[in-house]
Predict the structure.
Amino acid sequence: MEKIGHYAYKYDGSFHRYWQDALKLAETRDYIITATPKRTNVIEGDGYFWRSRELAINYFSKDKWFNVIIMYKDDEIVYYCNLASPCLIEAQSIKYIDYDLDVKYFPKSKQIKVLDRNEFNNNIETYGYPQQIIDIIEKQMTEIQFLMENEIGPFDPEFALKWKRYYIDNK
């Protein structure tokens, strides 16, 4: 497994967040899968530094406007989905624009929480998101909720278990 960084940017190109030393598990024409082990270094745009609390498997789409972080908590799996541009891969790095709006899914309770709607709405003005981007993000929000409710794609429990097993068997 080779190391690969995750770089999130804001719409104006400013640095937002960086996950250091993620591990590339797989790449296809449509997506890339990485792992961020427990205690992965994360650096925020303001310089704040923290470490991840648990293993996460990350699904980055090359054509959809979202990415998914599958977090393996002590007694459950939790999905954190960023509404973001399709990823770009260059020089051992995954890069994307974070559009602020997030969705968290708790499969045990089937609960879906939309997060940061106010931040998204404020940043429509702050960054001047074009209507085309707003429409794409809103459409993806509907698709993500459908995928979560029906446990399709990266939200399929078998997907989460498969990639956790792969990481453990190959680390």
